[in-house]
User: Fold Polyketide synthase from Postia placenta MAD-698-R-SB12.
Amino acid sequence: MPTPIAIVGISAELPSGTYSKANLEHSSFFDFLLNGEESYECMPDGRFNVEAWKGNNRGEIRVNAGSFLKDIDLFDNVEFGISARDARTMAPATRKLVEQCFLALVDSGIDYRNRNVGCFTSGTNLELTNVADPDEFDCEGSFAGNPSMISNRVSTHLDLLGPSVPTDTACSSSLTALHLAVQSISNGECDAAVVAGCQLNHRFGRAEACVAIVVKPLQQAIQDADQIYATILATAINSSGGGAPPGAPVAEAQRDAMRRAFKLAERNPREVDFIELHATGTAKGDPTEVNWVGEEFSREDEVLIGSVKGNIGHTEIAAFLASLSKVISIFRSRQIPPNVNVKELNPAIQWLKYQLRVPRSPTPLPCHSARGPLIAMSSSGIGGSNGHAVLEGPPTRGSLDSRAEIMAAQPSLLVSAGLSSRSTVAFSESITNMATRSACEVPVLSTILGRRSRSMTWRSFAIADSASLGKLQFSSPQLCPREARPVVFVFSGQGPQHERMGRELFERFTVFRHSVLEMDRIYETLTGSSMLRDYGLFDGCGSPGKLKDVWPISLILPSIAMFQIALFDLLTSFGMKPDIIIGHSAGETAMLYASGAAPKEMAFELAVIRGRAFAPLEALGGGMAAISCGKEDAEEIIASVRSELPDNILEIACFNSPSAIAIAGHDIAITRALELCQTRGVFGRKIRTSVPMHSSMMERCREDYCRELRALFERYPGQHVPQIPTYSTLTGERLSDSIDADYFWRNTRSPVRFTQAMERLTASQSCTFVEISPHPVLVSYISSMAGDGSPVISTMHRVKPNMPSVDHVDLLRVCGELTASGFNGVNFTALNNRACYECDVSLPAYPFSKKSYALYPDTPGYAKQMEPHLGPLNHRYLRINKDTHPVLAEHVIRGEPIMPAAGFIEMAIEFGATALLHVDLKAILSLSSETPPAVEVELNSSYWKVQSVTSHDWHSGKQQKRLHADGYLTFEPSQPLKDIDIATIRQRCKNHVGSCTQFWGCMTGSILNGGFCTAFYSSLSYFSAYGPRLRRVTNVYYSEKEALVSIKGMDNALKQPFNGNYDQNAYYLPAHVDAVLLHRNLAEEQLPHHLYAHVVLKEWWPVAKHHIDPLPAVQRPLHLIYQPAFFAPQQPTPASLSCNDPLRIKLDTINCYVSWLACASVLGC
Assistant:
């Protein structure tokens, strides 16, 4: 069985449609599903000019609705350290992936920056940008738009060091990405991984989504107390091979992927409680998938299946992860949301045979296994890439054991963190408001915020208690280094001890208390006394009256060691483990244990031995003092005192810093030295001890002390070598050899070389220093030597008498200061004794400051998608063939579809012209080309022309073009013609021929000898064929002097291809114009010239605006009226075709008329 993988983080942006003004995130998405909502809506403005391209033909867009993410142009590049130029060049999907992967990693709380975390992503890197030409100037020096950047940009900006792999297997891309991530983790290539998919588009029925998850080994997730959303037992992927065409699903291949996954998971398909299908709703895909699922998963009771695509559509690349978001919430809520839009079941699926059921209302999730709920998920990509995943619910974990020290009123550490100082401050304000409203959740909130801070580069903190929740004071944000500074624990020597040290820690924290009690038993064994019972230390229940202002050395040294060792145990139990250890004087006792060189018992026994051995020296009248001067000044003071008091000992005991020295010797000499310091303006003070450590006076105890030291090391034999880097203040160098008894004699007798040790330690690195002491004594010395880049943190502080203890607050402050400095080791779960998963805490959204970036570069390619069209036959990107304009292709001459002359007229009219002049048709435009040629409709002043590009030499940049039509136009308002009484004309035209009821005879016959409407189209079949949508002449009423011809107006056959295509200024009616022109063939052959020379087109305007719905005049016919010509009959062909208002078409030359009839009209124009 492969390594079970836990999903520990998730972030999602899913379409909401009209359900919400914002995109759906993971939790709100499930509410959306439970409510049976849908996200389909009209295409958002700014994505694509759908009205300009709408239609049912090739090169057009059939729908204007889908599932869209809102505000995909918004991005906070500054927060991620991305330049504005890169952000502009970066694919919008990549920007979304950076953002969502970051949020998923934040949600997981894992420490991912500069760590071996993999990145497996898929996104529409080119889907939105392929409409735009590249801008070589904007992209210079940037690789933001490269396909590899789909994952590499995420790895770069989030500082992930594991494998960075982009995937593209179409609709199964995100499952493929998950499979690769699972394999990479199982093979040890990375410790964790982020898996994400983003689909952004503008086309048919697709949907948009961006989902990211974080995965890591299950056992590690349990150990780290991570939020576990679900467990991935196994994944499998394969290919359909040559089993079917690339676009067809193959049941056996899909089944094989499922079987592989269940074999790896060592589970039975019949244990599955719910199956989330790929189920895209296609006639072929659904029966193929569902029927094999029924065969494999069927059992005695029903099998529940479903798919999220009914709610949000097919999110393609992100489809699997969108479904996974649903499945995760099913595990959490034990509810299966309803499938929407299931009006009737597909009869091609064997529902009853396999007892399959699609929930149509919220349904409880059944459980068929004692191991917990089990869900299967399938995914398939067009082209044959299949996959399957088997998931189990998260493991059952109870709350952490309650402890007496965890009380409702205890203080909590709240960390505010972000990728910038701005976001850190903004988030701290949100935290303050939230903590005020949810005081009971503050410990869990502390755990969550602390875990999440590990992924942030800027951090601040505040300590909250019941009194300060409404007025939290956050520290100033600090920038954390990419490489965490080493943490140095500095153990102080004697001097800071006080009777209340550690008392609150002993009361509230089990680890500290147990460590103290363990050492107190050793102390009682060795001395016969108890620090707790006999001196009242730590628990405050003993006899504090025994303690004087200056403690005996036999108590000072073991009590300091006890406090330091117990505090060390407490800090390390919260994850604060040092990288380097250094001990100052007596602090090297605790250093022996903290460095791993000796067990706790040995180190504490050493402290007791030291105190007992040094006790006789207290009667010698010795002491110590600290003076603020350098070595040279100290030696001068010592020399002066010696000259005055030659029989007294005074020596340098400690080199604390270049400007701080400790001296030891006889008390009278110490007092005189402090007097000299005062006269010289040098600060000096006595140290609270009566033992002159690190001076020659210590020789008095050498024999007894060394004997006990040797006995101690004999009781604990072996090499006592530090296990972590440790610096000796005896030698001033790093310790590399085993520590022995002689070392601790020299530690007692020789001066403390703290300055030298610090110089060696800080010579090549910045560190974070933590002084382990009941009260700060070394902080100022460390700060003076560590430099500005090295934080120095004190642990505990002595409070004034009768003031409440601040041990707990101090502890939290240490954790906060360490975390703010860039340390990621604090275990906030242990610190709060509350896990992040124990209760649902609704956190404030991350405070991005987004600004808009154009979805497309401002290039000609973008203009193509966004520019409005003057009309269906007049725009800069016009391409025409039988597939793009099938109505025009019904105009067939000698077996080849060609552009009707009316089409060229329409192109010119769509400029908004009121009249066309000197129209000349030059050449036919064939519509039979498999690839539609580009057609250019140009206007220069009043001159217009139509030409097609016949060839393009990309090497020379030259194009070959063919001119098809040209002429002139005007935009001047036309003079309206006098109204014509059609009814009166109809009465005068007694003769009538209808295309549906009469046969008109052949074209060679006279109109007076018979009719010809239907037969007219048939009579042209020897050289032309008109499709049904171009056959518009319906009736002719005539007399000897005039005729009235009816042309079929807008009907469903003609309306459907153009329905809703164009705005109210469109004139698109080439079929009608073609009929107007075509009837002239009839007129020329059958009517006297004086009749056909003047044609009046009535009711053009309402018909031309046929798309306005409803329009009463839509169905009315056109009436062509033939009356005596304005021109003499002997003038062969001049004619005037006019409309009532606002359009007139004039053919002013015989050349034009001959062109129409000879090269177009005769061909059916």
